[in-house]
């Protein structure tokens, strides 16, 4: 058994157990048990991908993702075999494909013999009577129909019992009609009405029933093989993780252990050329790390003391010692796989239309088959009832709703995998369908247009700052107080201030009553003094006059720096300026977005002057500065009310309301978990060029879905009338049920093959 939280192997009789959806999971510790029981759905897929047996895998239907159950089975709505929500590297070949292959190859010789006997039996066996040949066909075709087509009949019966007509309803009725009629004509030929007779006796269609079964089995084999490739991207991601890790023991001894045995806090060595085993931080050494397999960025990233490492990335020439921070289902790689798998199961709005059409389509086809049978039986030429049977079976067989049902899910599954391999994660199918229609992009500044790793710029004191310590350099008093308060903050700007104070060797005090005013700044108490650090609006809220430093602040903003005023005991004490470099990819990304006709608007909590300075470097014309989180959301809502399709790109907690409000929220993978949860698209690297890649993939995917739907609808619009015999009065053309079966299989395979083209998008 595998612990779904940390990935450790656990004995099946572990006392720590939890049952979820009829599946029992075992845990190595109370911590893992509590975490799983709080949100089991978050981890069930990870248990499967970590090596849990198939009985522990949650299976779902590609066409109806709401159908979920532990272990394999058949979808009650469409009859398709359920597939694991999360692919496993050691899962082996699809068991349904193995079963269908066995049935196909064992029955194919019997089908060929039946077909040859039906077509050329009189010529090959001139001395054998027609009745004897019919009995021989019955013996040959019965194993094909009764055993080879057994899964078809089971699904047909289930579709009728559950009132979910689907492709198996049509195939089952068609094969059963041809076979049962032929059995009756063989056993009791005199009981068959004269309208069914041809060439002096009751005609049989064993070869049609057998060939339909073999062609359907072959079509399913091709379709299942193509569908298995839609999960190739997920399996490739799973395969990135190394099998072992090199753990450093308490006394310095090193040993290679299975990845599932790594715990949080373990010290691991990553040698040159090895993959980083799990997420963690560098505690010793320096090296460059290739993160392209996770982020899509090909340039290696330099890593040193305190830098974060992502599991499955490739170490360069240096040796690193790291501390494990996240293992098992909580690693970046595992979360990416879970996110992509969940997105692949989501349903696009276009698919809802196809689902509704499919249901009524099947009922309509059964009705058309009934009308065809009666029309030919009463109005057709002799042998009219024989024509009626053949054409009605052809109508049932050629009308394949499977192609219609697969049209959008296959495109979505392939596109999600393609996006993941390029560092773009779509959270659901609706996002991939909506992104192409976006005409306005609202972007945050810090962490989105800029690196999100601010560097200290300068500090300006308005006057002496009371201090309990003796500081050697001007500004150290103010910096020490500001850093003491900011040490409790998680904002990147605060990190820059705290980092500079520690670089100068300043001793920080403990902050009390810390309060973060989102979008404005922070407040608290340091050494008994009330301290506030933030923008002009925070000062105004506190009744503090910031005008004495307004000129200096404006000059710093014009240089692109972010200015934060510092007030102590209700009076302005000075300011701290922090500079955040613009992302290298941002200028080109902004230029290309404008070329694509997308209106770009910057909305930031920073001062307007700073925002304009950054916008000028990036060619952004519309800027809104010093906006609160609710202001960003309101601005997005205003654009939507004006008829625009709006995307919002951000990375912080303050961006979450606007990300949720936007038609498509785009979160930076380098940002906060709150922002990533609020967005519908995540750029793993946090690179704005990913927006362009995501939009291009959205356009290609929607075009692919439309192609699939158009093909499926056109195929049925042409095939059903042809099978019904509408051309017979004019051209004398009738469609054999065998040809109809081949065309039916071809339609499904064609739809899946077209979807697979997105892998090259």
Adjacency order of strands in the biggest sheet:
17-29-28-27-18-25-26
Give the radius of gyration: 34 Å
Number of helices: 26
Question: Mean pLDDT, rounded to whole units?
Answer: 78
Q: Tell me the structural class.
A: alpha+beta
Large-scale geometry: elongated
Multimer state: single chain
End-to-end span in angstroms? 39 Å
Bin the helical content. Answer: 40-55%
Strand content: 15-25%
Biggest pleated-sheet summary: 7 strands, mixed
Number of strands: 29
Q: Give the uncertain stretches in residue-range form.
A: 45-56, 466-473
Describe the 3D structure.
- With 761 residues, the chain is an alpha+beta fold.
- It is built from 26 helices and 29 strands.
- Helix 4 packs antiparallel against helix 6.
- 52% of the residues are buried.
What does this entry show, briefly?
With 761 residues, this protein is of the alpha+beta class. It is 48% helix and 17% strand.
Defining traits:
six-stranded antiparallel beta sheet; 26 helices; 48% helix; single chain; 761 residues; seven-stranded mixed beta sheet; alpha+beta; 29 strands
List the SSEs and their pairings.
Layout: E1 17-20, E2 23-26, H1 30-38, H2 44-49, E3 58-60, E4 68-70, E5 83-84, H3 95-124, H4 130-148, H5 150-161, H6 167-187, E6 197-198, E7 201-202, H7 206-228, H8 232-240, E8 244-248, E9 254-258, E10 267-270, E11 279-284, E12 287-290, H9 292-295, E13 301-303, E14 308-309, E15 314-315, E16 320-326, H10 332-345, H11 349-379, H12 384-398, H13 401-421, E17 424-426, H14 429-434, E18 440-443, E19 455-461, H15 476-486, H16 492-503, E20 511-517, E21 521-526, E22 529-534, H17 536-541, H18 550-558, E23 562-568, E24 571-579, H19 586-595, E25 599-603, H20 608-618, E26 622-624, H21 629-641, E27 646-650, H22 656-661, E28 664-668, H23 673-678, E29 681-683, H24 689-724, H25 728-731, H26 737-756
Parallel strand pairs: 18-25, 18-27, 25-26, 27-28, 28-29
Antiparallel strand pairs: 1-2, 3-4, 3-5, 6-7, 8-9, 8-10, 10-16, 11-14, 11-16, 12-13, 12-15, 17-29, 19-24, 20-21, 21-22, 22-23, 23-24
Helix pairs in contact: 3-4, 3-7, 4-6, 4-7, 5-6, 6-7, 6-12, 7-26, 8-13, 10-13, 11-12, 11-13, 11-24, 12-24, 12-26, 13-24, 13-26, 15-16, 18-20, 24-26
């Amino acid at each position: 058994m595998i612990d779904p939280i940390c990935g450790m192997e656990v004995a099946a009789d572990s006392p720590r157990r939890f049952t979820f959806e009829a599946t029992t999971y075992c845990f190595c510790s109370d911590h893992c048990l509590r975490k799983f029981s709080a949100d089991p759905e978050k981890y069930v897929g990870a248990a499967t991908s970590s090596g849990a047996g198939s009985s522990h895998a949650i299976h779902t239907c590609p066409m109806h993702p709401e159908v979920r159950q532990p272990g394999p089975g058949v979808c009650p709505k469409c009859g398709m075999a359920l597939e694991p929500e999360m692919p496993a590297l050691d899962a082996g070949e699809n068991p349904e494909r193995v079963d269908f292959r066995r049935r196909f190859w064992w029955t194919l010789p019997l089908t060929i013999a039946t077909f040859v006997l039906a077509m050329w039996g009189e010529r090959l066996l001139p001395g054998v009577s027609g009745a004897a040949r019919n009995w021989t066909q019955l013996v040959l075709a019965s194993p094909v129909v009764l055993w080879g087509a057994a899964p078809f009949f089971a699904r047909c019966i289930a579709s009728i019992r559950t009132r979910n007509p689907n492709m198996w309803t049509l195939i089952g009725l068609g094969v059963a009609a041809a076979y049962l009629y032929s059995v009756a004509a063989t056993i009791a030929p005199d009981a068959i009405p004269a309208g069914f007779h041809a060439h002096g006796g009751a005609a049989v269609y064993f070869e049609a029933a057998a060939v339909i079964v073999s062609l359907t089995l072959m079509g399913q084999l091709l379709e299942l093989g193509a569908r298995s490739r839609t999960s190739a991207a997920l399996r490739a991601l799973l395969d990135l993780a190394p099998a072992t890790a090199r753990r450093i023991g308490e006394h310095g001894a090193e040993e290679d252990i299975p990845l599932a045995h790594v715990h949080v806090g373990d010290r691991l060595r990553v040698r040159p050329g090895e993959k980083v085993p799990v997420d963690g931080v560098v505690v010793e050494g320096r090296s460059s790390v290739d993160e392209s397999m996770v982020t899509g960025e090909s340039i290696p990233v330099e890593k040193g003391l305190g830098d974060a490492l992502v599991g499955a990335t490739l170490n360069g020439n240096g040796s690193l010692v790291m501390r494990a921070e996240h293992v098992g289902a909580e690693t970046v790689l595992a979360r990416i796989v879970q996110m992509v798998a969940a997105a692949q199961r989501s349903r696009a709005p276009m698919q809802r239309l196809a689902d509704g059409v499919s249901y009524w389509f099947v009922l309509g086809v059964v009705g058309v088959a009934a009308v065809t049978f009666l029309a030919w039986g009463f109005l057709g030429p002799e042998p009219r009832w024989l024509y009626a049977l053949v054409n009605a079976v052809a109508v049932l067989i050629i009308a394949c709703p499977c192609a219609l049902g697969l049209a959008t899910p296959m495109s979505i599954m392939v596109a999600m995998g393609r996006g993941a391999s390029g560092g773009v994660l779509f959270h659901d199918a609706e996002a991939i369908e909506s992104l192409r229609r976006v005409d306005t992009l609202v972007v945050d500044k810090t962490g989105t247009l800029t690196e999100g790793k601010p560097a200290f710029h300068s500090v300006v004191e308005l006057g002496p700052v009371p201090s309990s310590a003796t500081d050697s350099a001007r500004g150290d008093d103010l910096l020490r107080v500001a850093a003491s308060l900011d040490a409790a903050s998680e904002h990147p700007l605060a990190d820059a201030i705290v980092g500079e104070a520690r670089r100068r060797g300043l001793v920080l005090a403990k902050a009390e009553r810390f309060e973060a005013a989102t979008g404005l700044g922070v407040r608290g108490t340091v050494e008994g003094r009330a301290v506030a650090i933030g923008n002009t609006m925070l000062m105004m809220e506190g009744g503090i006059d910031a005008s004495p430093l307004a000129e200096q602040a404006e000059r710093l903003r014009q240089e692109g720096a972010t200015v934060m005023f510092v007030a102590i005991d209700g009076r302005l004490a000075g300011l701290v300026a922090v500079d955040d470099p613009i992302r290298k990819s941002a200028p080109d990304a902004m230029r290309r977005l404008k070329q694509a006709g997308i209106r770009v608007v910057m909305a930031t909590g920073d001062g307007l002057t700073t925002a304009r300075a950054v916008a000028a470097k990036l060619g952004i014309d519309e800027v809104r500065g010093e906006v609160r989180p609710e202001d960003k959301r309101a601005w997005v809502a205003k654009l939507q009310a004006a008829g625009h399709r709006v995307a919002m790109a951000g990375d912080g907690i303050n961006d979450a309301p606007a990300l949720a409000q936007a038609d498509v929220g785009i979160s930076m993978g380098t940002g906060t978990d709150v922002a990533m949860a609020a967005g519908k698209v995540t750029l793993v690297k946090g690179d704005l060029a990913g927006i362009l890649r995501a939009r291009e993939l959205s356009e290609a995917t929607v075009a692919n879905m439309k192609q699939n739907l158009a093909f499926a609808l056109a195929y049925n619009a042409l095939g059903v009338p042809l099978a019904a015999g509408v051309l017979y009065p004019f051209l004398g053309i009738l469609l054999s049920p065998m040809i109809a079966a081949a065309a039916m299989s071809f339609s499904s395979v064609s739809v899946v093959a077209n979807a697979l083209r997105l892998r090259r998008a």
